[in-house]
């Protein structure tokens, strides 16, 4: 892979990733397109520009860690890991098939480059805290980034981890909330409202930023600010659109966990030229 901080180049990579996501889930005939598409700019900015990592040495002890706590969105992570060179691109279309390394939720038994097996929502921030604390105790420079869903953070374990992070001054961890405003079968505001969300994270002692999660320059600035923040963890509330990039999936709760039909895949790929 060739790292870059150039926005047009990163946007081109996002398009490649979105095309993989749509094709993979279409081929599998099952999966979660909406929350994979909403997180594309976040993962691409991290993997191509921000994270200290090296696909040639996945076990490098000083690497930064990324945890996809909202594991159901794994097609975005699989496409990113494959494009970075961690895993085979030519197997992406085996998503969710028996024997595939690309299972329906991320599984470290099949992909050692994953930092965590996820999919049972609510656990990723706690795992990230452990990794961050271990890096501190070992005197390593590693930073930890955890991507959470907005529906996911209705879980109590998230707030236990949030308390831990502030109390232990975990300034090497960043919690990202993919604030696409839709959870499994409807809008967050109708199921269990999170607002005032920024005030919640601040009241838990986190340095808290709000960005447009599809604006790569804004994400780069937020990651830089997080890296410069000492004595407190950073939360980045990323406002996103579920299904981003595919007109009929955007902001449509149906595409949380429904695969596109072959005709819908074709239509989506036309839109993602
Ligand atoms: C502990 C747990 N409970 C329930 C589920 C089933 N589940 C999968 S996705 C999802 C909704 C997640 O919504 P959100 O966090 O907003 O994800 P996104 O919108 O980013 O797809 C639920 C309830 C799960 N995976 N884990
Ligand atoms: Mg959501």
Report on the architecture of this protein.
The protein is of the alpha/beta class and 273 residues long. It has ten helices and five strands; from the N terminus they run H-H-H-E-H-H-E-H-E-H-H-E-H-E-H. The chain has helices at residues 7-28, 33-37, 40-50, 74-84, 124-138, 156-167, 188-192, 197-203, 216-227, 262-271, and strands spanning 65-68, 144-149, 173-179, 207-212, 234-239. The protein is globular, with a radius of gyration of 17 Å. The model has no long low-confidence stretch (mean pLDDT 98). The structure holds thiamine diphosphate and magnesium ion.
Kindly list the characteristics that best describe this protein.
binds magnesium ion; 5 strands; globular; 10 helices; binds thiamine diphosphate; single chain; alpha/beta; 11% strand
Architecture blueprint of SSEs:
Elements: H1 7-28, H2 33-37, H3 40-50, E1 65-68, H4 74-84, H5 124-138, E2 144-149, H6 156-167, E3 173-179, H7 188-192, H8 197-203, E4 207-212, H9 216-227, E5 234-239, H10 262-271
Parallel strand pairs: 1-2, 2-3, 3-5, 4-5
Helix pairs in contact: 1-3, 1-4, 1-10, 3-4, 3-9, 5-6
Thiamine diphosphate is lined by residues 32, 34-35, 38, 70, 72-73, 119-122, 149-152, 178, 180, 182-184, 242, 256.
């Amino acid at each position: 892979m060739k790292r870059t901080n150039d926005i047009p180049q990163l946007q081109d990579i996002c398009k490649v990733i979105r095309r993989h996501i749509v094709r993979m889930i279409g081929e599998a005939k099952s999966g979660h397109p909406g929350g994979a598409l909403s997180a594309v700019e976040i993962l691409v900015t991290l993997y191509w520009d921000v994270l200290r990592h090296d696909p040639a040495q996945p076990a490098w002890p000083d690497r930064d860690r990324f945890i996809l706590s909202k594991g159901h969105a794994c097609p975005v992570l699989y496409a990113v890991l494959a494009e970075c060179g961690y895993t085979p691109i030519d197997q992406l279309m085996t998503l969710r098939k028996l024997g595939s390394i690309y299972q329906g939720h991320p599984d470290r038994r099949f992909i050692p480059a994953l930092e965590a097996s996820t999919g049972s929502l609510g656990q990723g921030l706690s795992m990230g805290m452990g990794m961050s604390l271990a890096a501190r105790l070992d005197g390593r420079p590693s930073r930890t980034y955890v991507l959470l869903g907005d529906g996911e953070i209705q879980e109590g374990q998230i707030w236990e981890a949030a308390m831990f992070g502030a109390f232990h001054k975990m300034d090497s961890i960043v919690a990202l909330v993919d604030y696409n405003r839709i959870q499994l079968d409807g809008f967050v505001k109708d199921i269990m409202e999170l607002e005032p969300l920024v005030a919640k994270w601040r009241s838990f002692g986190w340095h808290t930023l709000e960005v447009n999660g599809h604006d790569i320059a804004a994400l780069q600035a937020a990651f830089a600010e997080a890296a410069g923040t000492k004595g407190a963890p950073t939360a980045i509330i990323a406002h996103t659109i579920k299904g981003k990039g595919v007109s009929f999936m955007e902001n449509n709760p149906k595409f949380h966990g429904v695969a596109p039909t072959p005709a819908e895949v074709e239509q989506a790929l036309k839109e993602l030229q």
